[in-house]
């Protein structure tokens, strides 16, 4: 179980982070569906069906107009971007799981993450440092009550400081709670 969960988690993270790293994967999997549309993120399919440019703007005060979806095994993903700019971006990965809160805490939650109360069965938030390619990121991960692991991550452009991601994390938690309510109701 642990090895399968770790493989799913690793695949989930690679699917989400692989959209901007410029590397060609050895197993590209099914093609990514991208859509440029200033009205509907969800038209790209995949995890984008859970997102809407207007709702995202209401939470983050950021205008996205490109949505790209992917799918690999039980994991669906979505990345929102602004035109041709690789960052900022907002990514969402959703994967079915049989994990319980203890497994989620021990096998999925990254070291250094803070627990989040009131989101799914278990949740965390973590803020990451900038890299050479992009600015800092804020990530919210949670185990939904309907057997899914979700990861919502906002990555800033190079010019932002880590404090921006720290300030954004509570807003992403609110957005995650809204997404979770939508997902569980579906």
Automatic annotation (TrEMBL):
<keyword id="KW-0732">Signal</keyword>
<feature type="signal peptide">
    <location>
        <begin position="1"/>
        <end position="21"/>
    </location>
</feature>
<protein>
    <recommendedName>
        <fullName>DUF3558 domain-containing protein</fullName>
    </recommendedName>
</protein>
